Amino acid sequence: MSAFINVPRARLLEPNTALSPLLQEILRHCERRNIRYDRPLVHFVMNLLSLDPRYELFMETVSAERRNHDDFVEACCTVLNDDRSPTLITLRMQCYFLGNFFDRDEIVEKHVRNLQAKTFALTKEIIDHDVITKDEQDEVFNKVIVDIVVNMGLGNPECKDVMAETMRALNSVMSRSDKAKFVTLDRKERLMALKDIREIVAGIRIFNKHSGNTANGMADLPKIIDQSHESTKSILQITLCEIMDKVNLLTSALSAAIAYDLRNRSIITLLPENITADDFETIKDLLAMYRQHEVYTRKLIDELAGIKLLIDGCKQEYEARLLRIHEAVQYRTAIPTDRVFPKFSELTRVWLQFQNFVFLLSEMNQISNTLTSLTERCASFDDLAYRLLGESQIQTDIDRLNKVSAKRLSLPDPKSCEIVPYEEGMQMQLLKFCLWHLAEGKGLLMPGSIELGVCRVQKEHYLFNIPEPVTFFDEDPNKYFFKIVETARKKVQLICLLNMYDKLQASYSAPRCEGFQMKLTTTCDQEVQTDLHPIPSNIDREYRWNVWDYRREAIRLANIRTKRTTSVQTLESSRAIPKSTQVYLDKMQGTQTRVSRSTETEQRRQTTGLKVIEPSAPSPLKVYALTLAQASRSGFNRNGER
After folding, report:
1. Beta pairing partners, 268
2. Got the DSSP string for 40-87?
3. Which family does it belong to (predicted)?
4. Dihedral angle at the C-alpha atoms of 495, 500, 503, 509, nearest 10 degrees?
5. Among 48-57, 263-272, 425-434, 516-525, which stretch is predicted with the lowest mean pLDDT?
6. What CA–CA distance (Å, rounded) separates 97 from 41?
7. Residues 6 or more apart whose Cβ sits within 8 Å of residue 513
């Protein structure tokens, strides 16, 4: 049962564009009925239900009646309605697991991308910061220390001891001149140098921790990984044991309620008085849910075993790297530093692998916890299972198969099948469940027995639980294939569980048993060669088929005549485009002014000590002036008229 079901993930999880109108209608119905839904789950359910040709969604001649589309919308809403039903819980598990379980490399890349996104702003400040003064240089290298601690997982960047020890490791690698040279590098070279500094400084700190020197805040990753692996392993094993207890109970209850009518080639259901047919179908759906949980849990256990092998190899490499560095340090006078530093970088790469393992184990625990929480959400039907079991005993798969271990499949006159012994690595169909029980029991999951033998038909291998039905199957295999396909169309959770997506898609055009034939997906290698250029190409890049394109171009050219072209020198392009400015140099100039001149006059002498005698009679000049003034006042007015 540990084989992983490799379902076409993209075709089941991605929305189908052909169903977009129906999607909106389904969402409206869900909101009207207060049904909680997730869009990925709705896409998943629609892609599974669309494989039923009863709804005629992808028929070549689509029915004009809207009744088929209404039935499809109603079927989707019915599946999404009961949140605690085993069918919806199984579909939720499948949708979650297909969307969250990836390869180990993809999970590691996702972790690295998330870490780079968180430290992008810090790294950008380091490589883009222009340094002029010594204080700015110290500020840049303080950011470098934080970048190293965060990216390499060397402790808490808020702890002073962690930062101080990382600074000492950095100073042992880079001198003051090296730091000055680092800040003068361009953006690309500074980023490459920063990556090298990270690895070397982290390797020194890891080596100091292993040597017994101070390594404050650093976790012992090898020890943590061992503890985490053991914890994850025990949790998965406990979960698997709990699942198998449920599986054994439900399988035993269903086995006690059926009987084989080999004469009529059918399975008869014998139900107690207090058990209805719907209860019997609920137990079958519940068994499918726990079988799906079992498949996913075993897949996680297998992945954990593969991770354990990688962890052991990584630990051996870690010890070997440390030993080489110890030997190099002992003879450091004879070995140049350019040969020692790469050893620290190699040690850091192993350390980062340990961190990736921690992240992988964390992801596995999260997936396991989510799957367990989904199964716990399902309603309990233990009382119903015990009533169906009656007085029968609970049997495990091994106990049930041991009863038929002495029997073998046989075909006296094979028509369509052949019986072959089981071989290791043989690809089994239907997840090793009995084909006859699935077909006649309408989704009854009973494990097949490899001890009976393997039935090969159309290059595919199937198992049976009892030897008699192989004769019925050999007569008409397509009849039983159609019954299984028809059951999967009604119980869509079986499509992913039994890996039947391709079979249902290939049989979409056969809605009825008549003319049904299981088609196998065949591939072949084929080569096709064509002439390089059978017709000379003549492509006119300026050709426009629409006349309005020419009109728009004419308007654009006319508008250009009224525009003016300008250019702007930006900050980013200023360092890339050379430019120069011409100025006039300073020169000495002087101005000459007139000479100040003055005129010297004769100095007036003042006589002192002499008495001035006024004349007694008036002067003739004064008398004349007085007479002239009186005459002018009396003979003329202001206007000069007499």
Report:
1. 259
2. HHHHHHHHHHTT-GGG-SS-SS--S-THHHHHHHHHHHHHHH-TTSHH
3. Belongs to the CFAP206 family.
4. 0
5. 516-525
6. 12
7. 479, 482
DSSP run (H or E) holding 635: helix 620-635
Going by their DSSP bridges, the two strands 460-462 and 454-457 should be labelled as: antiparallel
How confident is the model at residue 414, as a pLDDT?
A: 84
Q: DSSP per residue over 444-463, as a string?
A: ---B-BSSS-EEEETTEEEB
Q: How many beta carbons lie within 10 A of that of residue 555, not counting itself? A: 10
pLDDT for residue 630: 64
- The one-character DSSP state at 428 is B
Please state the rounded mean pLDDT for residues 354-382.
91
pTM: 0.75
pLDDT tens for 540-587 read 777 888 888 889 989 998 988 888 777 666 665 555 555 667 777 777
Q: What residues contact residue 24 under an 8 Å CB cut-off, 6+ apart?
A: none
> H helices of 434-546, where?
435-440, 469-475, 477-490, 493-497, 501-506
**Which residue, chain included where needed, has tokens 């997982």?**
153
Q: What does the pLDDT look like over 485-508, one tens digit per residue?
A: 999 999 999 999 999 888 888 887
Cβ atoms 271, 257 nearer than 8 A: yes
What is the distance between the alpha carbons of residues 314 and 316, in angstroms, rounded to a whole number? 5
* 62 — pLDDT class (breaks 50, 70, 90): very low
CA–CA distance, 603 with 531 (Å, rounded to integer):
125
CA-based end-to-end distance of the chain = 152
CA 492 from chain centre, in angstroms, equals 28
Which range scores top for mean pLDDT: 87-91, 171-175, 266-270, 274-278?
87-91
**Which tokens is 25 given?**
């209608």
Q: Residue 37: enclosing H or E segment and its boundaries?
A: none
Helix (H/G/I), strand (E/B), else coil: 433: strand
- Tokens found for residue 55: 């709804």
449: burial class by Cβ within 10 Å (0-12, 13-18, 19+)? Answer: buried
Q: Quick check: 232 and 364 in contact, CB under 8 A?
A: yes
Dihedral sign for Cα 153, 157, 158, 159, please.
Answer: positive
What six digits make up the tokens of 148? 């190293």
The number of residues in the chain equals 642
Report helix, strand or coil for 500: coil
Q: Which residues pair with 457 in a beta bridge?
A: 460
Token couple for 92 = 């939720």
Angle (CA) 52-40-380 rounded to 5° is 80
In this prediction, residue 498 carries a pLDDT of 92
Q: Where is pLDDT greater, at 628 or 465?
A: 465
**How many CB atoms sit inside 10 A of residue 189's CB?**
12
Tokens encoding 90: 């199984």
